[in-house]
Amino acid sequence: MLRTVKNLEDYVISATDGNIGHIKDVYFDDETWCVRFFVVETGTWLSRKQVLISPISIGHANWADKQLSVSITKYQVEHSPDIDTQKPVSRQQEIRLLEYYGYPYYWGGYGMWGDNVLPNMMLTGYVDLTSQHHDDHTKETKAAKAEQHKEDDIHLRSCEAVIDYRIQAIDGDIGHIEGLLIDEDTWVIRYIIVNTSNWWLGHQVLIPRHWIEDLSWSDASASVNLTQQEVKDAPSYNSNMQVDRKMEMHIYNHYGRLGYWMDKDKHATEKSQH
Question: What values do phi and psi take at 98, rounded to 5?
């Protein structure tokens, strides 16, 4: 299921020995648009007002009660590296945090989370049986790749920070980012919610995030390889809608493009053949 970042705000993060706090924002990496950390407001029990918690630690999600249980303790959170959540988070800061909790690096594999699709699979010893890439040579290659990217200056970005970014089509402005839709299983941002009120009478549409060709942090803008007319004629969206696969197919069919799930199925087939 897909959820908006706004919907996730104020979800309770529960440690094994009590509540840590409430989600106030999420950080995604600006290459894959995958959520890497929750920004959690701790309240009064911790001198630091906000901490970063990785989706890797999620053990159980109680969506009905708006609660995410994580497999760490309040003591661990209290003594975790102090990172300024008001600024972009660098790869070096990520490494400090991941190593503190004993988490593997998520980069260096062929999946969104190491060699896996889901973040908590990185801790369970999960093995993708469709893959033949678990011999010693491949492990050494992956380790080398992870080490190669260890010094990358890739920044994690705040989802709240991209709200109101202008969206530019091939032939002109089409509106601004109103929100983001996140896959609750993989924690990948699937769609940007575009509000065209400054161009087309309040019409809201969903645009797949991987269609964004350029994201300018300095100009607070993004561009997509779509025309104004394509966006104008796209299926409308509102916050009361549940975005299921049927609706996703309707969106992709409108633009005449293959859905991301087709690419995923093709990738799985190709792996099984090697």
Answer: -65, -40
